[in-house]
Fold this protein.
Amino acid sequence: MPTDERARLGIFLAFQYPVSIPGVTVTNFLRSIVKARQGEAPAGEFRKQMTGAMKELAMDPSFAKRYVNDGFSGGEKKRCEILQMSLLKPSLALLDEIDSGLDIDALRVVCEGINKTWNPAMGLLIITHYQRMLDYVKPHHVHVLVAGRIAKSGGPELVARLEAEGYDPIIQEALGASIA
């Protein structure tokens, strides 16, 4: 399916490196994507939702008038993506290394935004290489991919094992299983 059809169905993707959209304000961008997903809402209602979500993410209100990701720091770009997710209320959200390029404080704020946005009716797939993010966003299931395949699955205890042992033992287990 084309990207816009997937988005209307409720699939959201946050990128490792979000692109800038010079000339399009955050407000206009958010209003157009929310309208495409949920239909037209009164301007006052939309603005109230947007400013409330921005406050939750510790975003300065002036961001609403800035161009999407244009001149944003890494943390500002990631907060903007969580803001989009918060307003779109997707059925499935894929967060591709959303922790990339974040300092400690920005990571905490972004993770708090994820936790506030997530609900049991929403699927959430977080792709990360670092445990620190998972200290804030507690996973239900953990999967390790090797060469595009799930090599190992488990619960949060798998994250602790990875942190203690690294990927090599799991890769060796996966290779051993594929030979057998």
User: Anything to note?
Assistant: The domain at 3-137 is CATH 3.40.50.300 (Rossmann fold). The helical segments are 3-8, 26-38, 43-56, 74-88, 104-117, 131-136, 156-165, 168-179. The two ends are 37 Å apart (CA to CA). The chain has two domains: 3-137, 139-180.
